[in-house]
């Protein structure tokens, strides 16, 4: 069991949504938190929401920048004496077909969602080794099982993070460093509002259909970490889609495309 009380937990993307809710839930469970984000204003709001908790540090970090993530790990070591858990949560998306998506947008999404997770994992490995163990928590998505059209960079990044987590599970089997791969369905956060090239009506539509609150997502994720679960689906929608993909893989992929187009037709 990775009991979080008294542990030092680094969280990326802590300025909003799931990252903010994770920060609040971690503090409630007695963890020491090293919170990072590229959005300093949002990060300050997260820290303010922790109502004076001690053992909280905040760090401005762009996870797509290797040197910045390595600097983050060094800072966490200097200020907390080490780290036990890294939660690679920062993420974003861009609405575009593969054909029309610019290389810049592909690089941006893969830079944050994939390279950010690679950098976070590798930069915090030595700190966890120094502690004699730890936990890597990678926030992927249900999109790692069921892709959605016009979300190609995001789908690719989440499939890749899933592959990274499963490889870590193989390589760390029997090790003192554990791995949890997280696959949420729709969570009511700013993900759609923050998305590149997302029409406002479609962002609003996502916000209406996303069922899980960030607080519920954080509770499910941290329970999974404390129980050392390797894989967790967050929300009934994610559980349903994962089951459908296992049962009828090709039909599930076609159905997700059909359902998405049908939904968007109502806003165009
Ligand atoms: N909301 C959902 O429906 C949903 C579903 C599945 C997976 N997820 C994943 O959950 C994670 C958290 O997303 P969220 O829903 O809370 O969205 P959000 O937009 O509310 O929060 C994402 C955070 O990541 C930060 N971020 C973006 N680029 C960054 C960078 N370069 N460096 C550091 N931080 C950066 C943002 O500033 C923001 O604070 C993401 O990995 C997302 O893909 C979300």
Care to describe what's here?
The chain has 268 residues and is of the alpha/beta class. The protein has a single domain (8-265), classed as Rossmann fold. The protein has 9 helices and 7 strands. It has a 7-stranded parallel β-sheet with strand order 3-2-1-4-5-6-7, sandwiched between helices. The model has no long low-confidence stretch (mean pLDDT 96). Bound molecules: nicotinamide-adenine-dinucleotide. Nicotinamide-adenine-dinucleotide (NAD) is lined by residues 12-13, 15-19, 37-39, 42, 61-64, 89-92, 112, 139, 141, 184, 186-187, 189-191, 194, 210. Nicotinamide-adenine-dinucleotide is lined by residues 12-13, 15-19, 37-39, 42, 61-64, 89-92, 112, 139, 141, 184, 186-187, 189-191, 194, 210.
Strand proportion, as a percent range, falls in 5-15%
Compressed to H and E, one letter per element, the order equals EHEHEHEHEHEHHEHH
| Each distinct ligand | nicotinamide-adenine-dinucleotide
What proportion of the residues is helical, as a percent range?
A: 40-55%
Report the radius of gyration as a whole number of Å. 18 Å
Distance between the termini: 49 Å
Q: Averaging pLDDT over every residue, what do you get?
A: 96
The CATH C-level class name: Alpha Beta
Number of strands: 7
Task: Work out the helix count.
Answer: 9
Largest sheet: 7 strands, parallel
Going by CATH, the homologous superfamily would be NAD(P)-binding Rossmann-like Domain
Unreliable spans: none
Secondary structure: elements and pairs:
Layout: E1 8-11, H1 17-28, E2 32-37, H2 40-49, E3 56-60, H3 66-80, E4 85-88, H4 103-131, E5 134-139, H5 152-171, E6 177-184, H6 200-209, H7 214-226, E7 231-234, H8 236-247, H9 249-265
Parallel strand pairs: 1-2, 1-4, 2-3, 4-5, 5-6, 6-7
Bound molecules: nicotinamide-adenine-dinucleotide (NAD).
Nicotinamide-adenine-dinucleotide binds next to helix 1.
